[in-house]
Design brief:
Layout lengths: L4 E7 L4 E4 L4 E4 L3 E11 L2 H8 L6 E6 L10 E4 L2 E9 L6 E7 L2
Antiparallel strand pairs: 1-4, 1-6, 2-3, 4-5, 5-8, 6-7, 7-8
């Protein structure tokens, strides 16, 4: 399996600090973890099993063997934001099923 797609796991920061110069609260930058994976469309049979019908904008992400999944709020790839629906770890490769969310 070729791991040719780059994706980013994003965890929003809960840390904020007050900047007296600006007179406002400033949020810290989100933590981003970049990796490569194989990303494909979700098959129709699997889509019906998970969602009850065929959903557009659902993808399967297959990650590298032994990849430790970081703590994340969403995933970014293809210029879009994706949320986790379910994950599996059969044999060697961890598999995530995600769906597109509005930004």
């Amino acid at each position: 399996m070729r791991l040719i797609n780059e994706l980013t796991f994003v965890k929003t920061s809960t840390e904020t600090r007050y900047d007296p110069e600006l007179g406002e609260w400033i949020e810290s930058e989100p933590v981003k973890t970049v990796t490569t994976a194989t990303i494909t469309d979700l098959g129709t049979t699997r889509s019906v099993e998970i969602f009850g019908d065929i959903k557009q904008g659902a993808k399967v992400i297959r990650l590298m063997p032994l990849f430790i999944l970081p703590d994340f709020d969403w995933i970014e790839f293809g210029g879009k934001k994706w949320e986790l629906v379910t994950d599996r770890e059969p044999d060697k490769f961890r598999t995530l099923i995600v769906r597109e969310v509005s930004i």
